[in-house]
Design a protein that fits this description.
- By secondary structure, this protein is mostly beta strands.
- The chain has no helices and eleven strands.
- The strands form two sheets. Strands 2, 4, 5, 6, 9, 10 and 11 form a seven-stranded mixed β-sheet that branches. It has a four-stranded antiparallel β-sheet with strand order 1-3-8-7, with no helix packed on it.
């Protein structure tokens, strides 16, 4: 079993920055793709960013150039640096770990609220 714990959410003004953290209970980075998703009220959960076991990153078009995903193997933590935040970035942000090769598996964190408002 793997536990994911997010932190770092909060209230920020438009144009501001936040860094989300996802602490992982054991190091799975070599076999799992780690990602951040978000869900705003009334909307479906959507992909924000992913980082593969090989270190390749992928971003939703809406956050490209503003958000950056990274990981620290020593701290077993995944980060989402969010800059130039907009009101439409307001959502609950979830950390995700997925393994597509056998035996496949997927884990989610409990989520952290990000609110962008003046």
């Amino acid at each position: 079993q793997v536990k994911l714990v997010e932190s770092g959410g909060g209230l920020v003004q438009p144009g501001g920055s936040l860094r989300l953290s996802c602490a992982v209970s054991r190091n799975i980075f070599s076999i799992y793709t780690m990602g951040w998703y978000r869900q705003a009220p009334g909307n479906q959960r959507e992909l924000v960013a992913t980082i593969t076991s090989g270190g390749s990153t992928n971003y939703a078009d809406s956050v490209k150039g503003r958000f950056s995903i990274s990981r620290d193997n020593a701290k077993i933590t995944v980060y989402l640096q969010m800059n130039s935040l907009k009101p439409e970035d307001t959502a609950v942000y979830y950390c995700n770990a997925v393994r597509l090769t056998w035996p496949s598996g997927e884990y989610w964190g409990q989520g952290t609220q990000v609110t962008v408002s003046s």
